[in-house]
Specification:
alpha+beta, 30% helix, single chain
Amino acid sequence: MQQGDYILDRRIVSIVADICAAHNYDIHTYSYDWVIEITHGDKTGKIFGYKFSLNDSASANITQDKVASYEILNRHDVPAAAHYLLRTKAGLQSVDILGEVVLKPLIGTSGHLVQAFSSTSEAQKYITGSAVEAWAISPRYEITREMRLILLDDDILLSYEKRHPGLNGNLAMFNLGKGAVPHDIEPDPETVQLARRAQRAAGLSVCAVDIVELSDGTQVVLEINDGIMMEHYSRHSLENATKAHAVYEEIVQRMVT
C-alpha cells in the first residue's frame, strides 16, 4: 500500500463506482478496495491505490525514485530540482552540497519525513540511526510557489496552485495533506510546456507534475507523481469534488474505451 499518509475513507473508491454506474462499466474491488478492476466490453483497466494501469510498471516505479526521476529529467534537459542519493542499503554515498539541504526518503509521498538541515554532514548524522533504507538529498531551494498539473497524454486535466497562509519557509507549506489550500489556475504556456516535457521524459501516460517557482522566477520540476491522489483537493469544496470526479472520469474512460 501507499507510503505516507493513509486515508481510511478514500473518495476515489466511491467516485470510480459512480463513474462505472453512469457508463455501465463492470467494477470489482479487492484488498479492502485498494485494488479496483473495471471492465467494458473486451477492455479491462485496473487501479492500485491511486495508480492507473495506463502507465507501464517500469516508468511508474522509476518515477517513485526521486534520484532516478531527477537523473532522467536532467538527461533530457528538463529543468528539475536536483536530488542525489545519500544512503542505500550499502551505506552512505559521497555527496557534498554547499549550504542548507533537504533530506527525503528516496521513495515516499505526502511529505513524509522530509526535513531540512544546515549541511550535508548534519543530514548524514541524522540518518545514521534511521530505519529508512534509502535517502535522497537536495539543495534547499527558495521556493515561492508550487503548482500541480495533472496530465493525461497531451491533455491538461487540471491545474492548481498550493498555498499555505502564514507558513512561509516551512517545508510543509505546499502540501495539501498538511494544511495547504488548492487554488485552481490557468498555467502559462511555458509552465504547460515544462509539464509536458517532464511527462514525456518520464514515459508516463497519466501523471501529476509538481512545478515550483524559485525566488529568481525560474521554474523547475520538483517531482512527477505516477499516482493521481485527489483526496485533499476534493475535500476542499463541492466545486473541487466535482472537478476531481471529472478528472477520474477522463482517466477511467481512457482505460476502458
